[in-house]
Design brief:
Layout: E1 2-3, E2 6-7, E3 14-17, E4 23-27, H1 29-33, E5 52-63, E6 74-85, E7 87-88, E8 91-92, E9 107-110, E10 139-144, E11 157-163, E12 176-181, E13 191-196, E14 199-202, E15 208-211, E16 215-225, E17 232-237, H2 238-245
Antiparallel strand pairs: 1-2, 3-4, 4-9, 5-6, 7-8, 10-11, 10-13, 11-12, 12-17, 13-16, 14-15, 16-17
Length: about 250
Amino acid sequence: MSFSGQSLSTGTGFFARSGSGRICLITNRHNVTGRDQNTGNTLSPTLAIPNVLTIRMPILGAVPPNYGTGAAGGQRVNWEAITLDLLVENEPQWVEHPALGERADFVAIPIDRVPADEQLLYEMVTATDRQILLRPTDHVSIIGFPFGMAAGENLAIWVNGTVASEPDLSYNELPVMLVDCRGRPGQSGSPVIAFRSGGMVPLRSGNTAMMAGPFSNFIGIYSGRIHKDSDIGMVWKAEAIQQLLATI
């Protein structure tokens, strides 16, 4: 996030498809407003708020035959810096939750330049026979860029956490669940998933499925810690994000 070319902060986002089929970048509201979600105070010590968002977008590109190792041609991921205006004539270019509005710390930004690979889109799973059953202490993964750092080749860092609240209940009367994880600046906007490498997986339907390989569910979006001295983080639930996407 930047203001007139001056970098203010870094964060994380991910792609999802809206109800009308548009590709949207999902990230935290406080990332695009540059303000604390609770107090409204500016987050940057410069007191500036961002008007431009630059994202590193993965684009699939062709690899010619004999590229490097003599292998056959195929595809590889190229990374492009895409710049989005956050404000046009002082009007926000993001879309907020239809009911929660500014109370929800996540937004959607429709984008025209889209990733070529459908696997880069997070799916809002609604059928209970495809949803992993989550209980307190179950493992989840927060996939983002702590301190703006990557794991290599611009790929995100996976941070493990555990469910810290009853997933079906609301935190502060909001569609939020809690996780115990090592959340740090830059991870705001990270997708949170339940990833299982395979084997017997309990489902919300009450059944147990035998998975021959890796299986995952999108759980929600990470938005930071409940207190600066705590490792308990907030995750806005997938169904709330789905409600937002349905309006676009």
